[in-house]
Design a protein that fits this description.
The chain has 325 residues and is of the alpha+beta class. It is 45% helix and 16% strand. It contains ten helices and nine strands. β7 and β8 form a beta hairpin. The radius of gyration is 20 Å and the shape is globular.
């Protein structure tokens, strides 16, 4: 890391010096890294720096090395920068995210200096969850969706989520499930033309949630695919990221009831004019569409993926049958 970056970090945190603690992760396909730094003489003991550096050659783990893939990633970092610059301050304790201390772009590099959520009381990452932890994440999503209801996603993806159909023509081309392929654009337009819209996180998988030690509070990371859309896209994707197919089916009603109870609670406080019954009715009806939309992407992108299961297949068949009627 160059002197330029050092100076940005020191200026934004008031520290006199810094030292690298660990590389948390490399960014997808060699686009940079996320690093934790320790600071001296700052109110922040540690910070996390997301450093994006556009590679001359990309190395995608599944072989999707195309101009389209590269442009999508570039846009995703522009979106994340816009998110932290213009929108992130709207999130409160009910949909906690890291505070952004500095944002800088230079040539083909981007630097984001972020609060360390580990130090802020969210040090736990989960690979499996109990009901309380699922509920904490659904509460986060509900409050996030309530916060941005009816907003226009300026500077963000017009339609949020990394699997959105318009940004994934190659994966659609590869899809061998012909009924699903034929239904893809209708499913997409059902979700896109919902009457009630908000911002979706766009990558709300379990790995992007940080938990408090007791598991009852969460914060979320990674806003590269935040944009407009129906909130159920996040819910379906989150559920699929942390439950096996039997539980997706078994707890479907409970999961949706929990989410909508939290959403109503959040909207009652700041959106008194919204017809909550109409909103819940519309979004509930779109849950199978949201689920099938991601299933469509997954089947084209990675046909052997563990998330392609009988529950998803049944959901897709049900949706396609509904569309035929």
């Amino acid at each position: 890391m160059g002197k330029w970056y050092h100076n940005i970090i020191l200026q934004s945190t008031g520290a006199t010096s810094l030292y690298e603690i660990e590389i948390i992760q490399s960014l997808w396909s060699g686009y940079g890294s996320i690093v934790r730094y320790g600071l001296k003489d700052s109110k922040y003991k540690t910070i996390v720096v997301k450093h994006v550096s556009y590679p001359s050659e990309t190395n995608h783990p599944r072989g999707w090395n195309t101009d389209l893939s590269h442009l999508r990633k570039l846009k995703s970092y522009e979106v994340e920068t816009a998110w932290y610059k213009h929108w992130s301050n709207r999130c409160n304790e009910t949909c906690r995210i890291p505070n952004c201390l500095a944002l800088e772009s230079k040539d083909d590099e981007v630097l984001m200096v972020l609060e360390d959520l580990d130090a802020a009381g969210f040090p736990v990452r989960k690979s499996s969850v109990n009901w309380n932890e699922i509920e904490a994440c659904l509460n986060w999503l509900a409050n996030f969706h309530a916060t941005f209801l009816n907003e226009t996603p300026e500077g963000l993806w017009e339609i949020g989520s990394y699997w959105h159909l318009d940004t994934r023509p190659e994966e659609l081309e590869e899809l061998t499930d012909i009924p699903l392929k034929n239904a893809a654009s209708i499913i997409d337009s059902k979700l896109t033309n919902a009457n009630f819209k908000t911002f979706v996180h766009g990558d709300a998988k379990l790995a992007n949630f940080c938990f408090s030690k007791n598991g009852l509070e969460v914060a979320a990371l990674d806003f590269q695919y935040v944009g407009g859309g129906c909130g159920l896209k996040d819910v379906a994707y989150f559920v699929g990221s942390c439950l096996y197919e039997d539980d997706c089916e078994k707890y479907e009603a409970k999961l949706l009831d929990t989410y909508f109870a939290a959403l109503r609670n959040a909207l009652n406080q700041n959106h008194s004019s919204i017809n909550l019954d109409a909103m819940e009715e519309e979004w509930r009806s779109l849950y199978p569409y949201a689920w099938t939309d991601f299933h469509r992407f997954l089947k084209g992108w990675s046909p052997g993926h563990w998330k392609i299961n009988s529950y998803s297949e049944r959901m897709a068949k049900q949706v396609i049958l509904q569309l035929k009627k």
